[in-house]
Design brief:
- By secondary structure, the chain is of the alpha/beta class.
- The protein is built from 16 helices and 29 strands.
- Strands 9-10-13-17-18-19-20-21 form an eight-stranded parallel β-barrel. It has a six-stranded antiparallel β-sheet with strand order 22-23-24-29-26-27, with helices on one face.
- The radius of gyration is 27 Å and the shape is elongated.
Length: about 650
């Protein structure tokens, strides 16, 4: 319960770095005291002489509206005997030297729409959530052994109105959510939605960490969007940037005339790559600010998880010629993940980390960083490099496709084809594929199929399912007109069928992070550029055979070694005519031969399509389908790592 005056204990925790609900103390809050409505304002600014409140309620004149310094460490507070809901405001700072400047509230819940920069008094109370079923189910969920297919979205360019304006949060709820459900994704990942001044930053250079951007509506509108996602079975992951922030004058940069939130040493403070400022992880108050921010999105907006941007920028000191470990950043990440895990272990914490730092997804008490997942940037770079190589030269770079399996089980990986891969001259995924028009689509189908079959959770940036030829254009909507063309419509249908297969095939997700869930059949066929492997479920004998042909050649009598006697059925083929393929499919059941091959006791003869992916499943007879004790076996295998809680290290 907010009170007009902050308590000594709250202030102590803030300066100690453990006030993890700082947003309840700082910012603008409407409250009742003695039956009177007041609006309280509280800000941290230790290095100024005077702080005054200015806004549209006092004609932006701070005379008579001073904040009072309530402790030696620089917390200022005042209250106005009015309900100022909806009013614009800023803090006027005056230094000892007489320098004056205006700052937006770092803890404001709502802000003016750019290019304006004032904070807005806004009460977050009053929204009636209807996602109880989702939230209760989330508590019991173990995503490590469940399918996870993430649709990464930039709300401003997914779709626009006919007159070119952004869709609102409520309009996006009506259009985006049904589309994501139809495609078959399990989660949406939203590019940063903290308030930010420049559209072209895509939200990665924020000024208002507690303000959901007003570009698309109000905080309550955003609550409605999340609520609708949950009611439709879609989880929401927020792209979050705790490493660096925007240097615009109204924001956190030199907040009280000094380097308050950023490192004091300019060499450490300046982020030359993005033109931003790096958070000072050596300050306890910064810990309180950032960890509170994550909890704020969780508790206020029911966010299901975070993708932490540029984790390597936190792990290592910036602006060094060589990677130099930053113990301050490492401690912050461990503290963040521990705090969130203690508060709600169901929250997904994902690291976008391009470095080779070990144990990113191991528990903190084992020396890890404590994330649940890590983006597999190495896999992404290797696979795309391989795919961009001409098919007849892929035999020379065969190892790029096999290398990931040497480390695939050391971390809990997400396989990302994100926005970063389709901007700044890198081409769209479709256009990266070499060859003619048909070959490009065939290889995109193969690439997406290989991603689904490879161990790890999946992430795909919006527009790939349309078969974009052009790069992502953040100022324009997706090329929806492409669905009027046959091959683009078919790739869209292919993604739907692929995700449907993924979600119903336990071997593709149950044992993603256990070595026992994967086995090569033929890893060395660089002459033909064909890869074959087995994905296994937790029940003994439950498996799928995957064969990928990365050349345009057709093989009508190709032998593949298999582990089980009997017969196999092709349950998926990327070369189906309905997907835009040439139709080289295996319609008949494939009976095994008692002929060892590829080191396996049995083999089948099949057709291998050009740029094709074939997925085979053993045919079960009636007596095999019943089984005894299978669920107990699955429970034992799936729960093993969670019970042991041991890091995957050599």
């Amino acid at each position: 319960m907010n009170t007009v005056f902050p308590t000594d204990y709250q202030m102590h925790l803030f300066h100690e770095g453990t006030l993890f609900e700082s947003y309840r103390l700082f910012g603008a809050h409407i409250m009742k005291e003695d039956e009177k409505v007041k609006t309280r304002f509280c800000v941290w600014a230790p290095n100024v002489e005077i702080v005054r409140l200015v806004g549209d309620f006092n004609d932006w004149n701070g005379e008579g509206y001073p904040l009072h310094r309530v402790n030696n460490e620089g917390i200022w507070m005042t209250h106005i005997d009015q309900d100022l809901q909806g009013c614009l405001y800023k803090y006027e700072m005056i230094t000892k030297e007489g320098k004056r400047f205006l700052k937006s509230d770092p803890f404001s819940f709502y802000s003016e729409k750019r290019p304006n920069t004032a904070s807005i008094v806004y009460s977050l109370d009053g929204y009636q959530w209807n996602d109880d079923h989702w939230m209760q189910k989330r508590e019991k969920r173990n995503t490590l052994s469940e399918p996870m297919a993430i649709y990464e979205v930039h709300l401003g360019s997914w779709r626009k109105t006919k007159d070119g304006r952004f869709l609102s949060y409520k309009e996006l709820a009506a259009e985006l959510i049904p589309y994501v459900v139809e495609l078959g994704f399990t989660h949406i990942e939203l590019l940063p939605l903290v308030e930010h001044p420049l559209d072209e930053s895509w939200g990665y250079q924020g000024t208002g960490y507690y303000s959901v951007t007003s570009r698309y509506g109000t905080p309550h509108d955003f609550m409605y969007f999340i609520d609708q996602c949950h009611q439709n079975g879609i989880g929401v992951i927020l792209d979050w940037v705790p490493g660096h922030f925007c240097k615009d004058a109204q924001g956190l940069y030199e907040f009280d005339g000094t380097n308050l939130y950023e490192y004091e040493n300019p060499w450490d403070s300046e982020n030359a790559v993005w033109g931003t400022a790096n958070f000072n992880f050596g300050k306890n108050e910064v810990h309180s600010f950032l960890i509170s921010n994550a909890l704020f999105w969780m508790e206020t907006y029911h966010i299901d998880g975070f993708r932490l941007d540029a984790v390597s920028n936190i792990i290592y000191w910036p602006n060094r010629q060589e990677e130099t470990e930053n113990p301050l950043g490492i401690h912050f990440l461990q503290k963040l993940n521990q705090t969130i895990n203690e508060r709600d272990p169901a929250i997904l914490m994902m690291a976008e980390d391009s470095s080779e730092w070990p144990q990113v997804t191991s528990p903190v008490h084992y020396g890890g960083l404590g994330f649940q997942y890590k983006w597999n940037m190495g896999w992404m770079n290797d696979v795309l490099s391989y795919m961009e190589t001409a098919p007849d030269a892929r035999s020379n770079v065969h190892g790029k496709m096999t290398f990931s399996l040497l480390y695939a089980f050391k971390e809990n990986f997400v396989l990302p084809f994100s926005h970063d891969e389709v901007v700044h001259g890198k081409k769209s995924l479709l256009d990266k594929m070499p060859g003619d028009y048909w070959s490009k689509f065939a290889q995109l189908r193969l690439l997406l199929g290989y991603m689904v079959a490879h161990p790890g959770k999946k992430l795909l940036f919006m527009g790939t399912e349309l078969g974009h030829f052009s790069e992502w254009k953040s100022k324009e909507q997706l090329d929806w007109h492409l669905l009027e063309y046959d091959m683009h419509k078919k790739i869209n249908g292919y993604v739907k069928e692929l995700l449907k297969l993924y979600k119903r095939s336990r071997p593709f997700f149950e044992m993603d992070f256990l070595q026992e869930g994967f086995e090569w059949i033929d890893v060395n066929n660089h002459q033909q550029s064909i890869f074959s492997f087995i994905r296994k479920g937790s029940i003994e004998g439950e498996h799928l055979i995957v064969i990928c042909n990365f050349t345009e050649r057709v093989y009508e009598d190709y032998w593949v070694g298999v582990p089980q006697k009997g017969s196999y059925r092709e349950i998926f083929n990327g070369d189906k005519a309905e997907f835009g393929g040439a139709g080289f499919v295996n319609k008949k059941v494939l009976k095994t031969e008692d002929e060892p091959y590829h080191g396996k006791p049995y083999s089948v003869k099949m057709t291998i399509a050009p740029f094709g992916i074939s997925i085979l499943r053993p045919v079960k007879h009636r007596k095999e389908r019943k089984g005894n004790g299978k669920e107990e076996v699955r429970s034992h295998v799936i729960g093993r790592r969670e019970r042991e809680q041991t890091p995957f290290v050599d």
